[in-house]
Design a protein that fits this description.
disordered N terminus, cell membrane, ten-stranded mixed beta sheet, signal, Rossmann fold, rod-shaped, alpha/beta, nine-stranded mixed beta sheet, about 700 residues, receptor, 20 helices
Length: about 700
């Protein structure tokens, strides 16, 4: 049970007298109004009341005396006393602060007893315009014909849980008769035409209700076939418009949700598009303060609901009521893929840079070690040859067959078998490189240390070559890697112009390069040119990407214009890529007109629809045609083509180029160095080189 809470706000200038209005002088004197109010509050269930806000002036202040609070002690009160001359369309600071406090405290019952009906009307206008008063709360106020003026009819489409207390004097000439009261309400959901005729709920007479009806029933539970105007905007997957010749079929997630609400709440739906929807889209604020597009229909009150992928943001909440979010969408950018072709690097792609550096270092170090060992063995052989050569030389001078001995010594001067492979540093590096390419040596080298090193180096080459071939096979079998933009930071660094619909979608990282664009077809074309990135939800981005790639006609929001898209030419335009990282996950809701009475019950039904999985099912249904048109680029990834072998031709071209340079250098050396040598004789070239080598 709640404790008693009384917050009285007494304004300067409020008269302290208890003078009553001439119209209700008898009521105030007999205090009948107080008992009507007590019985109305007793008819409400205590658990349904969180707080009661009382707004009164000095004329009716005597109604709220201690006796009322003694009877109702289980509910907190917030009481606001206003001056009779105060303009409640622009209340003073204390009144405004008190009204805001009632909203903060969650008061769901408002008792407005003011002598001036104009003052009540201006209070209701102010509370509705600035959302100071909770229009979904229960209202108890005095009957005044000025509250039914046609300029206030829009209020009674929003404040529907209201009871007007209408006083009737006692019958003249009947001494036993007593004053009695009519309890009236607005005729919701029946439409209000030129004149508002309130509907009687009950009669209070002789200290009791005549019919004992419920005073505050849920009037939105059954709308009895009332027609609601729903403005929509074609935006996948919320609203999907399929055109067949001159007819249009409207589907999508939000359309299905709204149709379900119409069946549950028993109302008819009139769906229409705003004027110039293909240009205005959701709409923006105009110079005169009004709004265009879908937001304009909602702000002006012409539409009861809005279907069009509305984001649950403060920007939209200022203009309308939003249902609880039925889903959360990933909002990101449609970006161009880079045209950079790295197929010419096929030969170096299997290994990373640090791996190639390690392979090169091992090649140089191993070739140098082979050369050092070969030189050691060659020097050792020369040393042995010099010591064994002297006895043969002495014997040669004494032997009768000197020629044969010279021949024997000549062959003894030859290099050891196999050491010529690594005897020179250039040959050592080349043959070591040849082993790395699995090319066998022409001869097995002499020396066990070189042979052992050769064996272990062969094992290293086998492991390295197998790894290289496996990686090369994967690269040739798989499609070429795509260079894409997948994070907001990469997009900011790319210097690509970004854009979307609406200034409110700007992001700080790219706000200086953000451009608004109304036509998604134009946006897709600019993205394909590599100069633009388009911002929207991932489902809609997939829709425009697949439509463009499949070469089908992309329907615009209005039948007067069709954006025919031509499939992109591979050499002129880029493929479209949806950024994998979400910039933000935004809740999506259905819009209702400001302070709509339908929202509380609609929220309950939408929550049930989401819980049973219908939203997910309708989302899959809306995106199924798009997925069916999606082309899988990896279906033919195992086929080989000439483009994948660019690397081989690049390597061959590099070999031709280097060989040509070496050949040219040799020609220059022959003509500029060798032929100009005084010892050169073209008829005895062998003698020239023999003398050259001796030097």
């Amino acid at each position: 049970m709640f404790g008693l809470c009384l917050c009285a706000v007494l304004l300067v200038g409020v008269p302290s007298s208890e003078a009553t209005s001439p119209i209700l002088r008898g009521v105030a004197h007999n205090k009948e109004l107080r008992w009507v109010l007590i019985d109305i509050l007793h008819s409400l269930r205590p658990r349904d009341i969180t707080c009661i806000a009382v707004i009164s002036d000095s004329v009716y202040l005597n109604v709220f005396d201690g006796e009322l609070f003694r009877i109702i002690t289980n509910v907190p009160f917030v009481m606001i006393i206003v001056a009779e001359e105060e303009d409640l369309l622009s209340p003073n600071y204390i009144t405004l602060k008190s009204l805001r406090q009632t909203k903060t405290d969650g008061c769901n019952v408002y008792i407005i007893f003011l002598a001036s009906g104009l003052q009540v009307a201006r209070l209701l206008k102010f509370g509705d315009r600035h959302r100071i008063l909770d229009t979904h709360a229960k209202y108890i106020m005095l009957h005044d014909i000025r509250l039914y003026h046609k300029d206030l009819h829009y209020l009674w489409k929003r404040i529907v849980n209201v009871v007007f207390i209408k006083y009737h004097r006692k019958i003249i000439g009947n001494a036993k008769s007593r004053p009695w009261f009519d309890l009236l309400t607005v005729p919701f959901p029946n439409p209000i035409k030129s004149v508002l005729v309130p509907r009687r709920v009950d009669i209070w007479r002789n200290d009791k209700f005549h019919y004992n009806r419920s005073l505050f029933v849920d009037k939105t539970y059954n709308l009895y076939g009332q027609q609601l105007n729903a403005v929509y905007l074609d935006h996948v997957p919320s609203v999907v418009v399929t055109r067949d010749n001159e007819t249009s079929k409207i589907g999508g997630v939000e359309v299905e949700i709204f149709k379900t609400l119409s069946e549950l709440m028993h109302f008819e739906v009139n769906m229409y598009q705003p004027a110039h929807a293909e240009l205005n889209k959701w709409g923006q604020k105009q110079a005169n303060g009004s709004f265009s597009g879908l937001l304009g229909e909602m702000a002006s009150g012409r539409a009861d609901a809005a279907l069009g992928n509305l984001q649950y943001t403060p920007y939209h909440l200022e203009l309308m009521d939003l249902s609880i979010p039925y889903t959360t969408q990933c909002w990101t950018f449609l970006t161009p893929e880079a045209l950079t072709d790295n197929s010419w690097k096929t030969l170096i792609l299997p290994f990373k840079l640090n791996m190639w550096i390690a392979v090169l270092l091992v090649l140089l170090i191993t070739g140098t070690i082979f050369y050092a060992m070969a030189r050691y063995y060659m020097n050792l052989q020369d040393y042995r040859h010099d010591h064994d050569k002297r006895p043969f030389a002495n014997a040669l001078n004494q032997h009768p067959y000197r020629t044969e001995c010279r021949l024997h010594i000549y062959f003894a001067d030859a290099k050891p078998v196999g050491l010529y492979v690594f005897g020179e540093i250039i040959n050592s590096i080349l043959y070591t490189y040849g082993m790395l390419l699995v090319v066998s040596l022409p001869r097995l080298p002499t020396g066990w240390s070189i042979r052992l090193l050769t064996g272990w180096y062969w094992l290293y080459c086998i492991l390295l070559v197998v790894s290289y071939r496996a990686s090369m096979t994967a690269i040739l079998a798989n499609p070429a890697p795509r260079v894409t933009i997948d994070t907001l930071q990469e997009l900011a660094d790319s210097k690509v112009t970004c854009g979307g619909w609406g200034i409110e979608t700007k992001k700080p990282e790219i706000s200086d390069r953000f451009e608004t664009i109304n036509d998604p077809n134009d946006a897709a074309n600019r993205v394909a040119q590599g100069v633009y990135a388009y911002y929207d939800n991932s489902n809609f981005l997939k829709y425009i990407s697949v439509k463009r790639k499949s070469g089908l006609t992309m329907e615009s929001d209005n039948a007067t214009t069709n954006g025919s898209l031509v499939p992109p030419k591979p050499h002129e335009e880029r493929d479209l890529h949806i950024m994998s990282d979400c910039v933000v996950n935004i809740p999506i809701s259905i819009g209702f007109h400001k302070n709509s009475p339908f929202k509380p019950l609609a929220d309950i039904y939408i929550r049930r629809i989401v819980e049973v999985g219908l939203v997910e099912k309708w989302l899959n249904d809306a995106m199924e045609p798009i997925r069916a048109l999606e082309v899988n680029d990896e279906e033919i990834k195992a086929l080989m083509n000439l483009k994948k072998l660019y690397g081989a031709f690049v390597a061959l071209a590099i070999g031709y180029f280097l060989s040509g340079i070496c050949f040219l250098l040799e020609i220059i050396h022959w003509n500029c160095m060798v032929k100009k040598d005084p010892m050169f004789d073209k008829y005895a070239i062998d003698v020239y080189y023999r003398n050259k080598n001796k030097k």
